[in-house]
From TrEMBL:
Annotated S-adenosyl-L-methionine binding sites: 73, 105, 124-129
Pfam family, one: SPOUT_MTase
Gene: rlmH
Reaction catalysed by this enzyme: pseudouridine(1915) in 23S rRNA + S-adenosyl-L-methionine = N(3)-methylpseudouridine(1915) in 23S rRNA + S-adenosyl-L-homocysteine + H(+)
Organism: Methanocalculus taiwanensis
The enzyme's E.C. designation: 2.1.1.177
Function: Specifically methylates the pseudouridine at position 1915 (m3Psi1915) in 23S rRNA.
Locations listed in the record: Cytoplasm
This protein's name: Putative ribosomal RNA large subunit methyltransferase H
Chief location of this protein within or outside the cell: cytoplasm
MF terms in GO: rRNA (pseudouridine-N3-)-methyltransferase activity
């Protein structure tokens, strides 16, 4: 299975980079993981924020191309237990429909265009995380999901 993560901005903290690399390595028996970073848009006044979000959204959609399943991460999205998320991964894997693209917006969130394109808007938690932490948390949940699917120890 091909899983793509398309995210605004770069991961700057070494510990986050190391955690992401470790999870990608752990996921290699289950899926091919690629991460595409699109630039975050700087703005100098609050009035420029909507335009910056739209530009980031356009970059995210262009990088996503046309995945079989497009999931946008947003704090206002649908929350689900790890077992339900694992079932989503399993059902998509069994369907053989192709790749999954996860989209992570920048500090100011996702554009309406990205939300409209998403097959699912997913929330990792009611808590707020940085967009770089969201990558790490998402990868951990994907890893947990595959371990659940395979009945392998990890999830408790």
């Amino acid at each position: 299975m091909q899983i793509r993560i398309i995210a605004v901005g770069k991961v700057k903290e070494n510990w986050q980079k190391e955690g992401i690399a470790d999870l990608i390595r752990r996921l290699s028996p289950y899926a091919t993981i690629t991460i595409t970073e699109v630039p975050d848009q700087k703005y100098s006044s609050a009035g420029e924020q909507p335009s910056a979000i739209r530009k980031e959204g356009a970059s995210l959609l262009a990088a996503a191309k046309d995945p079989a399943l497009f999931i946008a991460l947003d704090p206002a999205g649908r929350m689900m237990p790890s077992e339900t998320f694992a079932a989503l991964l399993r059902n998509h894997e069994i369907s053989g429909r192709g790749d999954i693209a996860f989209c992570i917006g920048g500090a100011d969130g996702l554009s309406e265009e990205v939300r409209a394109r998403a097959d699912l808007i997913l929330s990792l938690s009611e808590m707020t995380f940085t967009h770089t932490m969201a990558r790490l948390l998402l990868l951990e949940q994907v890893y947990r999901g595959f371990r659940i699917i395979r009945g392998e120890p990890y999830h408790r």
